[in-house]
Amino acid sequence: MYAGWNLLLVVAVLCGQSVAFFWRFNSFTGVVSTNTPELEGSLDANKRVAIIGAGASGSSTAYYLQQFAERSGIPINITVFERSSYVGGRSTTVNAYGNPLERVELGASIFVDVNTILKNSSTKFGLRAKESGTESHEVLSIWDGEKFVFTQKDSDWKYWDIAKMFWKYGLVPLRTQRLMQSTVSKFRKLYEAPAFPFKSLSDRALDLDLTSVTSLTGEQYLKNNNIGPPFSTDIIQASTRVNYGQNLNTIHGLEAMVCMAIDGAMAIDGGNWQIFDGMLKASNATVHLNNTVSSISDHKGRYSVRTTSNDAITGVSSTKDSVFDTIVLAAPLQYSGIEIEEGLLKHTPDEIPYVTLHVTLFTSSRRLDRGFFNLPPDADIPTSIITTLQPDQVPSNYTEGCGKPGFFSISTLRTVINPETLEKENLYKIFSPHALTSEFLGDILGIPIPANLSSISPASGDAITWYYPHVWQSYPYELPRVTFEDSALARNFYYTSGMESFISTMETMALMGMNVAQLVVDEFNEVMEEEGLAEEVQKIMVEEITPDEL
Fold it and tell me: Which of 1, 187, 349, 357 has a C-alpha 20 to 30 A away from that of 101?
């Protein structure tokens, strides 16, 4: 008998099995048993996956995991935990005036033609793209804090039309477009084999010669390709500021190029979050909203996940422990508040600085004030204002890069109906690095605004009739770098937020979700092969044991 056990131990070691696997093997054969109470899910025959976060990457992971597992014949059970009350993460809407018929994007607003995951998914789920812009003539202007350095009418959502810029900037816009297309085409290789799937984003970026772009600031990358002021500072920097709250001298070259991929901009009627809601529904995952994951620990070689939830009716808090084969952390670890058992991860993701972005929505019957922007009385009032820096402005550091304009963008989204007065009003959206004051709002509207903004209501009769501020840790400061967090932090433990320092968009997070889903299935297949080998060893061992030995 002892010879048989020794043979098994030798085979297990040679096959790279851990002591934890050896213990599970013994328990499986019935030779050793325990009376330890089992946690929920510990006896589930299906592969159990916990996804923490129901944003773009978490929803995409669930969606593709179900598809890839089904193709591989792997029975799977997917559970998604989301601490918020909604799906979509930083892609979510709020209701102007509290009216569900007047939804407005609070986070990620648009996606573009090259975002194939979002485009294909929205088509598959039958979601309709909404019409862009306001009902009136659109005017896009770029403001440097004193004057408008560029103005374009009928801008639509493209921000600008390259062809209309030739008269001012010559062939530089065309050169920029070609550089963008060349750079983005390298990134697009991440969607397909042999680059897909990838455990190491750093290795793939190096393979695709993208680290030569991420290692430089946008300013350096553009200069190396004969693209400079005034086009780079007027147009490209205005785009990096409205998209990422960062200037060309700090944001890395790849993200700067992504800002120029603007063809086919669109948004889903009713909110882009519906794409991710559709993904979760199609995945057949069990989704727990208002569930906060507080800790993750080891449980006999698997993962024990502790969650806390509050009853919506009683408000009573409850705690629950469940066991999973695989964890996917689909949110930045540094903001998750999750306590992970020491030694559980091979590597803990570094904390990185994120942009604190203030998004302010409000309604008013008033147009923007021409006087504030030094416009003559007969000038068109811009419907969208994005900002850049004056040529001699150099921010003291990357976190204080807003400069003299004081905001990143002001957009007149559309007209809406005030439910109290039944009058049409303008719906505005402002991106800024700091909370807006009533003085600033009064200045841009040309009329005093009450200091107590929280008292504003549709029936107030004030210049502002609805007001909704929100603060996001919206995306990392995309500083130049050549290494990124790996997709796999430990065996059966995956992380999606490493993508954000590379490219932070809804599409790229959905791509990382698809990538992680394939890695999870690949790892399950490897385990199944190992278990198949273990069964062969077991069969040999049982044949060697005589009844007398038992």
Answer: 357
Q: Which strands sit side by side in the sheet containing 488-490, from one edge to the other?
A: 286-289, 76-82, 47-52, 326-329, 493-495, 488-490
Calpha distance 238→234 (Å, rounded):
6
CATH number at residue 518: 3.50.50.60
* Residue 114 within a domain: no
More confident residue, 442 or 28: 442
Specify the amino acid at residue 154: D
Instruction: Tell me: do 505 and 516 sit in the same domain.
Output: yes
Same domain, 172 and 312: no
Round to whole Å and give the CA distance between 388 and 249.
12
Number of folded domains that form the chain: 2
pLDDT tens sequence across 304-333:
999 999 877 777 889 999 999 999 999 999
**Are 320 and 127 contacting, i.e. CB atoms less than 8 angstroms apart?**
no
Query: What is the rounded CA–CA span in Å between residue 279 and residue 29?
Result: 40
**Cα–Cα dist 422/99, whole Å:** 13
Structure tokens at 55: 């944003």
Q: Cα–Cα distance between 512 and 520 in angstroms, integer?
A: 12
Q: Please give the distance of CA 238 from its chain centroid, rounded to a whole number.
A: 22
470-507 confidence digits (pLDDT tens): 999 999 999 999 999 999 999 999 999 999 999 999 99
Residues 64 and 155 grouped into a single domain: no
Burial class (CB in 10 A: 0-12, 13-18, 19+), 462: middle
Q: List the CATH number of the domain containing 449.
A: 3.90.660
For residues 473 and 356, the answer to whether their CB atoms sit within 8 Å is yes
How many of the other CB atoms lie within 10 Å of CB of 217?
20
pLDDT in tens, 148-165: 999 988 755 555 666 678
Q: Among 476, 506, 529, which residue terminates a domain?
A: 476
Cα 517 from Cα 341, distance rounded (Å): 24
Cβ(485)–Cβ(497) below 8 Å: yes
User: How far, in Å, CA of 360 to CA of 367, rounded?
Assistant: 16
Is 448 in the same domain as 428? yes
- Which pLDDT score is estimated for 544? 58
Strand segments (E) across 179-290: 286-289
384 and 408 within one domain: yes
Task: Look up residue 162 and give its amino acid.
Answer: I
CB atoms within 10 A of CB 298: 12
Gap between the terminal Cα atoms of the chain: 8
DSSP 88-132: STT--EEEGGG-TTSEEESS---B-TT-HHHHHHHHHTTPPBPPP
Together in a domain, 133 and 82: no
| Structure letter (DSSP) for residue 234 | I
- In the chain, the amino acid numbered 206 is L
Residue in 110, 90, 480 with CA at minimum distance from that of residue 268: 110
Residue 99 lies in a domain: no
Q: Containing domain of residue 292, as a range?
A: 2-88+272-351+482-544
Is the same domain home to 347 and 360? no
Phi and psi of 242, rounded to 5°? Answer: -75, -30
Examine residue 208 and state whether it is found in any structural domain, yes or no: no
Residue 207 in domain: no
Give the three-class secondary structure for 22. Answer: helix
